[in-house]
Amino acid sequence: MRKTQWIQRIVTVSVVAVTIWLFWPTMMPNNQVVAHKVLKPKASSSTNQIAPNQREEGIATSITSTEITANDTATLVAKAYAAELTFPPYSQPLTIHDFDRLQPNFYNPQSIPIDDNGTTVNAELSKYRYTYPEPIMATLSAEGFPNKNISNAELTLVDLSTKETLLTTQFTQGKDDWHATLEGERNLPNQLQATVKAQVNGKNISIAMSLKYIDSIATLKGFSLATNQGANMVLQASLITREEGLYRIRANLFDANKQPIAHLVSKEKLGKGSNHIDLKAHQSVLKGKQAPFSLSTFTIELMSPSPGIPTRYGDSSITQYHIDDFAVSSLNNEPYRPSDQETQRLQLLQSMVQGK
Fold first, then answer.
1. Taking the chain, what is the end-to-end CA distance rounded to the nearest angstrom?
2. Rounded CA gap, 301 and 298, in Å?
3. Rounded CA gap, 174 and 147, in Å?
4. How far is the C-alpha of 229 from the C-alpha of 236, rounded, in Å?
5. Pairwise CA distance, residues 198 & 145, whole Å
6. Domains assigned to the chain
7. 353 vs 99, which has greater pLDDT?
8. What's residue 2's pLDDT?
C-alpha cells in the first residue's frame, strides 16, 4: 500500500515537472501587479456574451467535479501536446478567444469600492508598457454615482524603489469620465507606479497601478514581399537593433475579414545595427483562409541573457503590414514534422500515461 502511494506521488510530481518543462517557454508573462479588484476586459462584438446564471453554473460545475488523478492529468497533457504538434511552434493557430495574444499590452482596469451598495471608482491606463516618447494616459470613472461627485483627482508617477514622486498632473473632467496625461521622459526607473488620488463623495481614495516605461532596444521598420518556401509563407522583417543579443519577434496574422489566423514567432541571435529575421506562416494555418492577409500586433523582445536581468522591449514604426498577391496554392501540403526534441517530449508523456 505504501509502495503504491509512493509511486502515485512520483507520477504526480513528474507530471507537474514535465508540464512546466513543456510549456514554460511559451507562457505569457503576467506583468501587472493587481492591488485591487480586477475588472474583466470588455468583450468585443464578435465574442459571445455569457449570462450571469451561466457563469454561476460554470463555477458550481467546477467545484463539484470529480477528483482528477495523476494519470488523468498526464493523459490530458499528452493529448494537448500531441494536438499542439499538429502545427509548428513558430506558426500556431489564433482565434478571437486568444485575448492575451491579441492584446499583449492590455491594462486590466482597477476598481475600488466606495460603499456597500456596489458603488465603485475605476481607474485604468491606456496600456501596461509604454515606449519613449509616448505619453502615459489614464482614465478615471465612476460606477453607481455621477462623475461630478469626483473632485481633486490627481495622477502621480512614483519610483517604487525610492518612493520619489517623478511626475504629477491633474485629471480633467470629460463627458463620461476623467482623463489625465503625463508626458514621457527618457531613462525612467524600472519599477514605476501610477497613483490616482481623488475625493469621492467627500472620501479620499487612492488607486495604485503598476506600469513599465522603456527606451526602445530595437525598432521594426517593415517587411519584404512574402515568398513561398516549401510549406511556409515567409515574411522577412527588417529591424534596427541597438544592442546585440537573442531577439524574439511576435506578430498576429489576419485574413481579409480581419479575423485572426495565426500567432507567428521567430527567435534569432542578432548583432547591433541593421538586421533581418524571418516570420513563417505554415500552410496548415492558411488552408481555407481568405486572402489578402495582414500582420499586426508586433512585439519585439531582447531576451534576458541570465537570471536577474529583465527582458527588454523594442517598438515598431509600422502598425500593420498588408500581404498582397500571395497565393496559398503555391505552398506544398507537407504536414509539420515535429523535431526530435518535441517527439521525445511527447513519447515521455505517453510513457507516463501508460505507466512505463
1. 19
2. 10
3. 9
4. 12
5. 15
6. 1-29+49-85+339-356 (no CATH), 119-214 (2.60.40.1930), 218-330 (2.60.40.10)
7. 99
8. 43
**Buried residues in 285-305 as b, exposed as e (16+ CB within 10 A):** bbeebeeebbbbbbbbbbeee
Beta-carbon contacts of 136 under 8 Å, excluding residues fewer than 6 positions away, are: 125, 126, 130, 157, 181, 182, 184, 194, 211, 213
202 φψ region: left (φ > 0), alpha (ψ -120 to 50), beta (else): left
Q: Which three cell numbers stand for residue 311?
A: 527582458
Instruction: Give the mean pLDDT of 304-325.
Output: 95
Helix (H), strand (E) at residue 60: helix 52-64
Q: Is the pLDDT of residue 102 over 90?
A: yes
How far is residue 31's CA from residue 212's CA, in Å, rounded to a whole number?
A: 9
Whether 249 and 235 have beta carbons less than 8 Å apart is answered as no
Distances (CA, A) of 241 to 26, 193, 263, 300: 23, 28, 23, 10
258-269 pLDDT tens trace: 999 999 999 999
